[in-house]
Design brief:
Its EC number is 1.3.1.12. InterPro entries: 6-PGluconate_DH-like_C_sf, ACT-like_dom_sf, ACT_dom, NAD(P)-bd_dom_sf, PDH_C, PDH_N, Preph/Arog_dehydrog, Prephen_DH. GO terms for molecular function: NAD+ binding; prephenate dehydrogenase (NAD+) activity; prephenate dehydrogenase (NADP+) activity. The structure is a single chain. This protein is α/β, with parallel strands linked by helices and 365 residues long. It has three domains: 171 residues, Rossmann fold (3-Layer(aba) Sandwich), CATH 3.40.50; 105 residues, 6-phosphogluconate dehydrogenase C-terminal fold (Orthogonal Bundle); 70 residues, ACT domain (Alpha-Beta Plaits). The chain has 14 helices and twelve strands. An eight-stranded mixed beta sheet has the order 3-2-1-4-5-6-7-8, with helices on both faces. Helix 6 links the parallel strand 7 and strand 8. Helix 4 packs parallel to helix 5 and helix 7 packs across helix 11. It starts with a strand and ends with a strand. Bound molecules: 1,4-dihydronicotinamide adenine dinucleotide and 3-(4-hydroxy-phenyl)pyruvic acid (ENO). The site of 1,4-dihydronicotinamide adenine dinucleotide has 28 residues, from helix 1, helix 4, strand 6 and helix 10.
Length: 365
């Protein structure tokens, strides 16, 4: 029997708990500072038992998963270092930022603790245990980072433990991780929020702005609806990289301003074209750092009956859909469904099936 502690039973900790309890050889314990979260976790059997004391919980297990906000995770590593432990413990985390966590982990002097950094690169805009989902990490990239207190065997053990998540593991060092996640996750978050602020400011002049905010604006600002407390923590924990990206971004915006000022239409076209090429290529390169899928666009009419029809057709043909998004649709008017599939085969089979049924579809190549 492996005894596992999850410290921080929110969206990520709760989702991992749901995975780990599905294996009967695991006893999963939970620790959180929020009483209601502990009560919910126990009541819904998301964990086998809960603890109000972090130290008591650590003493009861062989493996600890730290799933609190990044700054709290750093403090918990320090607390574990001061504990007198009688058995070896494999410790990992789930933090979106790695260097600040690894810095603490590399300072560990407690010989009982073996630390492997972790980051499952999937989530949602929701927070808290009630949003936890067992399948949250399916096909997602799960980054692992070895520290000097851990062996390759520890990394393997963690991969085996987390195999039920169906995530894909890769190893990166902290610097690589923080630079890459800044580019594709943390910094875009800041920009999404700034676009929303811009819309809100312009709404003073044009009150109908929200009515016009259609597909493009909604697509690019979706992540601005995420948990502000968590993102504030991430941005400050990864401050050095974010500041560098922000400086580059400001220079690039100045270049764009200059192109308009000087009527450099060709340069602007090239800028947009180069972005389109790179963006189009991302989906073809298989799974990115955040997941990429094989997409199919389908024209539909008259929601929600039409949506049900498409989903039923695909379900009957056992083609599984990973994600559905409705783009720019209003009741009773033509709309576009974006269906995402995990494999190229599913995408092509869905394309064939729906076109033979008379649907107008477009494959994202
Ligand atoms: N939300 C997302 O999409 C993703 C988040 N992460 C990382 O996962 C970690 C957790 O994020 P979420 O689960 O989304 O947040 P969450 O807000 O859903 O859960 C955090 C949990 O930690 C608990 N907590 C907070 N401070 C605590 C403290 N001092 N002592 C004990 N418990 C405390 C909260 O009560 C809550 O249950 C963060 O480090 C985040 O960077 C990683 C991948 C995706
Ligand atoms: O929903 C999205 O697009 C996300 O960006 C989810 C997410 C949030 C934080 C992470 O560290 C990893 C993934």
């Amino acid at each position: 029997m492996t005894h596992i502690l999850i410290a921080g039973l929110g969206l990520i900790g709760g989702s991992l708990a749901l995975n780990l309890t599905s294996d009967t050889s695991h006893t999963v314990l939970g620790y959180d500072h929020d009483q209601a979260t502990l009560a919910y976790a126990k009541d819904k059997r998301i964990v086998h038992d809960v603890y109000e004391s972090f130290e008591a919980a650590v003493r009861a297990v062989d493996i600890v998963i730290l799933a609190c906000p990044v700054s709290v995770t750093c403090d918990l590593i320090d607390q574990m270092n001061d504990m007198v432990l009688t058995t070896d413990i494999l410790v990992t985390d789930v933090s979106s930022v790695k260097q600040s966590v690894l810095q603490r982990a590399e300072q560990l002097t407690n010989p009982r603790i073996h630390f492997v950094g972790g980051h499952p690169m999937a989530g949602s805009h929701k927070r808290g245990i009630e949003a936890a989902k067992e399948h949250l990490f399916e096909n997602a990239i799960y980054v692992l980072t070895k520290t000097k207190s851990a062996t390759d065997q520890d990394v393997k053990r963690l991969e085996q433990l987390l195999a039920t998540t169906k995530a894909k593991f890769i190893q990166l060092n902290g610097e690589e991780h923080d630079e890459m996640t800044s580019v594709i996750s943390h910094f875009p978050h800041l920009i999404a929020s700034s676009l929303v602020h811009q819309a809100e400011k312009w709404q003073e002049k044009h009150p109908t702005i929200p009515t016009l905010a259609a597909g493009g604006f909604r697509d690019i600002t979706r992540i601005a609806s995420s948990n502000p407390t968590m993102w504030q923590d991430i941005l400050f924990q990864n401050k050095a990289v974010i500041k560098r990206l922000l400086e580059d971004w400001i220079l690039e915006m100045k270049d764009l301003h200059q192109m308009l000022e000087a009527d450099e239409a060709v340069a602007m076209h090239d800028y947009l074209d180069q972005a389109k090429r790179y963006r189009d290529g991302l989906d073809r390169k298989g799974r990115g750092a955040l997941m990429s899928f094989y997409d199919l666009y389908v024209d539909i009419f008259d929601q929600p009956g039409a949506l049900k029809q498409v989903v039923t057709l695909l379900a009957e043909a056992t083609i599984s859909i990973k994600n559905i998004e409705i783009l720019e649709i209003r009741e009773g008017i033509t709309g576009v469904l974006r269906l995402s599939f995990v494999s190229k085969d599913d995408q092509l089979n869905a394309h064939r099936l729906l076109t033979t049924q008379g649907y107008e579809t477009m494959l994202e190549e």
